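Section 3.1: Structural characterization of target chains.
Under the original work plan, the team committed to producing a structural model for every single-chain target entering the pipeline before any wet-lab resources were allocated. The record below documents one such target. The sequence was received from the expression subgroup and is listed exactly as submitted; it comprises 147 residues.
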Amino acid sequence: MDKEKTVESFQNAKKVYEEQMEKLEVAMDGSNIKIPTAALQTAYVFGKWLYLGNDDLRSILGSLFYDKIEILHVRWHEEYIKTFDIFFQKQKKGFFQNAFGNSKVSGMELEKANSYYKELKVITKELIKTIDSSERRLGALAESKFN
């Protein structure tokens, strides 16, 4: 793991979270999302990178930053899965409807999704702020800490 790739991974993570929030906004507006974000926290690039085979990250970043990112990452997925279930799991009506049309959710479900989305926005903001702080910390470290 080198410094440049580590910082780049954090920058990419911010983009991914922002994109996921945009996808949810589109879904709540009634549009069909072709490829929703994976609900499991280890099923996409940042989650895999954070958890799988990256033991050095905790020592480089420090337990305080790493633990905070990990906690927020878990909270994000816990909240996201609630919204995911409303828009993507409960819509399993049929291939053609899912592929070509928008399966509308009920008003009550949309209200719940909106509530979950608001909480998710708060968590996302805090997570991105923590990732930014971690990026600055990584940027200040000597390259020798990464080898």
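The two ends are 7 Å apart (CA to CA).
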